[in-house]
Amino acid sequence: MRHLLPELKTLLRTDMCILDEALYDEHPFQSIPSELHIGTDRPVFMRCNTEYAWLYSQSNRTVPHGRLPVPVVSASIELAEVIPLFATSPLLLIKNDQGEYEGYISVSDVMHAMMHAHRLIEAYFETTLETAGSALTLINEDAKVAYWTSGAEHVFSISKKDIIGQPAADFFPPDRLQSLKTLYTGETVYRKQHQPRPDLFALINARPVQLDGHIVGAVAAEVDITTEIRLHQELLHMTSKVQHLEKAVARLRPESDPFARIKGSSTVIKQCLETIRKISTTSATVLILGESGTGKELFAKAIHDLRELQTAPFIAINCGAIPASLFESELFGYEKGAFSGADPKGKKGKIELAEGGTLFLDEIGEMPLELQVKLLRVLQEKSYFPVGGTRMKQADCRIIAATNQNLQDMIARNQFREDLYYRLNVINLVIPPLRLRKEDIYELTQTFLQEFSLLYNRHIELVPPEVFKLLFQYDWPGNVRELRNVIERLTILTTDGEVKQEYLPDTLTSLTMQEQSEVQLTGIHAHAHSENQQHQEKSGEGKESGTIVDADELELSDPSDPFSHVTFQQKLDTYEAQLLIQYLKAAGGNKRTLAKQLGISRATLYNRMKRLGL
Fold first, then answer.
1. Among 121, 227, 302, 385, which is least packed by CB within 10 angstroms?
2. H-type alpha helices, 194-266
């Protein structure tokens, strides 16, 4: 509040006399003319070429006969700039812009003016703090409470007289005091939720007090939100109950929108939904293809809901989760006495349970070969025999199959029947991986946050932009399932309402998968490339000098080499794998040590080794 300091003109005194040096020579100090002694305390200055001397005043006859220098300053100068000049003289002469001497100022007048300004600032300061309406605390550089507002008295139930001048740590646990952290680290926070005491929740703004580049204190403004937090927790509890009731109602009355659980508005998702609408007009068998974690069952359920009655069953079976010895009885059911240990009443199979509805065969690529033949008969003949049964049953259900494997590659390896593949693949639906629909991450994140905040009774107030940036940068090899798990982790770890970057798993805080492969192992890749290039130069292989060679297109065609059809990139990967094995042995098999030596994270090393088949 510099404007509270007075200007020099307001402190100006004009009751003075100025003598020329020649006049002073005519009238020595002992005999100054009486006509110059106007007033009782009137200073007399002598004008000379370069300086002024305070010569005489009626009430002060202790001035030495020698000349006492008196500084001359401009009337437009700031008061703060003239204060150091009082070290040599208790008076200062004031000169205007035209060079005329307007008067003088005294150190006593300046001290009185500054004292008044200080009291005025203090009055403004106290009134402002008390009017702010929040609990305001000011601690000094010794970590003692310098100011404590009435709002702080009300929130913390500690009176001013008890706490002012005392160490703040005497009243609160030091690890819970944001103002102490701000004092020691200079950290500034805005609307951060914290708990100064176990029974108290508050939103805090904190900022360090700096003077001449040094932290000399910290100020904190806190708003008690304990009541709001408790109400919010009660609301979460009640909302959770409502959600459970809604789920119960949904089981009795299925949701009208079959796409309600499929979140996202990206172009690829819209295309998938449009394909489902077309599929729903038929009873054709559908093959859903997509990476693990993309939500294939959700899309299968959407197809079912669109083309079946609300009462029609949707029966899902995971072909990879059932032992081969039990798979046939699970799928086709069995008659009583079919085998030892069986239910004496027999058991219905999944096909019979799905009658009039949909049978969803998840992970169809894991189905045993011997059962693929029987499933083929169901698709062709619409009939089957239960285990131990002699009476044929009709299969009255629609089949939807799903897999994350390349069935055509499995056919080439004799791991999947080709005829069954074509029976299943009447129409296929390809679910895009999350890395190709990153614009849906925000909507998915909000959905999962709402779900888990209710489940774990957490209040999530803020997800910082830097956290969302990392979510968008990551390639999500585990797709939506991995994102869901990450959001569940964030919700569990967030206890103060604000998600922090350090709550993310290591895989997200490192570089993206693409950046890892292109940047992190540059040293190994470059070394392998150099070794191979030297080999080519010695053997005369490669293209003409000056030609740029693409590593993925270059074929090594040594007729004596049984692997001459292998591309340069494949050879390069092989060499990288050999180098990694060599370096891993040198590190004693310790992957953490190897990652540190290569300057990469362990997650990057694991991903690279997995890609190279190590």
1. 227
2. 226-252
Q: Which one is predicted more confidently, 604 or 386?
A: 386
CB contact burial 499-534 (16+ within 10 A = b; e otherwise): beeebbeebbebbbbeebbeebbeebbeebeeebee
What are the pLDDT digits (tens) for 397-418? 999 999 999 999 999 999 999 9
Mean pLDDT of the chain: 78
The residue with greater pLDDT, 70 or 445, is: 445
Distance between CA 383 and CA 391 in Å, rounded?
10
What is the distance between the alpha carbons of residues 326 and 331, in angstroms, rounded to a whole number? 9
CB atoms within 10 A of CB 399: 23
Task: Confirm if 73 and 82 have CB atoms less than 8 A apart.
Answer: yes
pTM: 0.50
- Asked if residue 232 lies in contact with residue 459, where contact means CB atoms within 8 angstroms, the answer is yes
Q: Of the given ranges (260-264, 472-476, 565-569, 599-603), which has the lowest mean pLDDT?
A: 565-569
DSSP code at position 541: -
Q: How many residues are listed for the chain in this entry?
A: 614
- Assign 3-class secondary structure to 450-502: HHHHHHCCCCCCECCHHHHHHHHHCCCCCHHHHHHHHHHHHHHHCCCCECCHH
Report the C-alpha gap between 211 and 208 in whole angstroms.
10
Return the exposure string of 107-129: e unless at least 16 CB atoms fall within 10 Å of the residue's CB, then b. Answer: eebbeebbeebeeeeeeeeeeeb
Beta partners for residue 54, in sequence order: 45
The whole-angstrom separation of Cα 178 and Cα 139 is 11
